[in-house]
Amino acid sequence: MSGSNNGTPGIAILGGGIGGLATAAFLHRAGLRCTVYEQAPALAEVGAGLVVAPNAARLLRRLGVLDDLLRRAVRLDVGWEFRRWRDGSVLSAEDLATACERLYGEHTYAAHRADLLDALGGAVPPDVVRLGRRCTGVTVRDGRPSLRFADGEEVEADVVIGADGVHSVVRAALAGPRPATYSGLCAFRALVPADRAPAFARRPAQTLWLGPGHHLVHYPISGGRFVNLVAFAPAGEHSVESWTATATVEEFLAEFDGWDPRLVDLVRAAETPGRWALLDRAPLERWSRGPVTLLGDAAHPMFPFFAQGSAQAIEDAAVLARCLADDVADPVAALARYEAARRPRTTRLQEVSHARSHVNHLPDGPEQRRRDRSFADVDPLVANGWIYEYDPDATTPHRVP
Questions:
Q1: In 105-225, alpha helices (H)
Q2: Which terminus of the chain has a lower count of CB atoms within 10 Å, N or C?
Q3: What is the reported pTM?
């Protein structure tokens, strides 16, 4: 790959997940060509849900893909609830049907990850994506990056964007191999067919149950055909960090023994749950080196307690495309502007997500009771406005000539 005939840079994106495809879509929208290299033989996401908060919905609308996604997503109209583990008593409830649009101009939705990937793919020309391309190394010679693939092929580019996830090859090339820290937590994920789920779980609500050392979130996805479950528990000796690792329903149930019977019934109806360790990674001091940069989980992996992983990758993509379009003649400067615009925000989100692992898992006692009482005093939708009101077009300045 090299620069095109009109002088625009040749841009290589490693990773065809949500961050990689969002980047390709925003680059295409800006009139810049790129190539996406994905190691899998097909574009696919594992069977799990995600929340599309107003900051992500705003950008998906700008790309022209939100309407396509909404044909398969669920608008969370009933609300955003916090409940107590033992009896399901409501600690806090937010009317998202009116509050989100009034405060932030967009609603909040829940979707299957594969549906979001499909929607983003619709904004990318089909010849942009190359499948079955596993990158094994990235080097920079005389200011130009080169990608090496498992089959021996080498590709040169003007710009390399590492959107290749938490085990990023590009991140290792930039920052060196830095082992993650054991967090002591693991995550269970599962889908429950709607016809097997209790009625309370089928409501268009994002419900978060808090208990000692554990918490669990559920919401409907796929047009209401499934209920998505994600739960967090002590990891014990479990240390595998992989979306393909599985557990048994019995193991899942054991972690939530003694919880509200309705919640136990929901877990019991789950299909084969996934289970993987949450490993801790400190924020990077830099994402970019010359013409190579990082994006999404490769740049800022975070605990999923604010449901912002995918949203932050989409935000990265929008800012990066804008910076490159503004500075076509000097992509190194464009990447520096991108990092300067994005790193403070994502670092803050990494830090608050990390802190939430303690707050959500308090043992019953005085500190837990103070936390529960605080829900009556603080509206989380308003308190986290800095997350949901963000608009890259309004906050990222154009390059000054």
A1: 113-121, 169-175, 199-202
A2: C
A3: 0.94
